[in-house]
Write a structure and sequence with these properties.
The protein is an all-beta fold and 127 residues long. Helix content is 0%, strand content 49%. It has no helices and eleven strands. The chain has strands at 3-7, 10-13, 18-25, 33-39, 45-51, 58-60, 68-73, 78-83, 92-99, 116-117, 121-126. The strands form two sheets. Strands 2, 4, 5, 6, 9, 10 and 11 form a seven-stranded mixed β-sheet that branches. The chain is globular. The mean pLDDT is 95.
Length: 127
């Protein structure tokens, strides 16, 4: 059973940067497609970014496209989300997700594509 553990969340000021990590165990990260989702208070879970398994294609939520970067480190078996120029609307619980299945890159924006989920890490942006 793949296990995912997020870390790196916390309180950050508007315009500053924060890096979230997702540690993967029981499976090599190269065999997985990975994604980040977030859930703000009173809102549903929304897609933030994904990275495909085979060709490393990345996709982003429009508002994150120029500010966030998703990547994976095979040696550390870890995925990261580098967040820059954070905004109050980035405040949410961020979840790491993974799947062994292969889909077209755009399909990874859908939460139901993922089989494994972490417990989430809180990000709070203060103004």
């Amino acid at each position: 059973q793949v296990q995912l553990v997020e870390s790196g969340g916390g309180l950050v000021q508007v315009g500053h940067s924060l890096t979230l990590s997702c540690a993967v165990s029981e499976r090599a990260i190269d065999t997985l497609a990975m994604g980040w989702f977030r859930e703000a208070p009173g809102k549903g879970r929304e897609f933030v970014a994904s990275i495909s398994r085979n060709d490393e294609s990345t996709k982003y939520k429009d508002s994150a496209k120029d500010r966030f970067t998703i990547s994976r480190d095979s040696a550390k078996n870890t995925m990261t989300l580098e967040m820059t120029d954070v905004k109050p609307e980035d405040t949410a619980v961020y979840y790491c997700a993974a799947t062994e299945s292969t889909y077209p890159a755009n399909a990874y924006a859908t939460s139901t594509r993922y089989k494994y989920w972490g417990q989430g890490t809180q990000v709070t942006v203060s103004s």
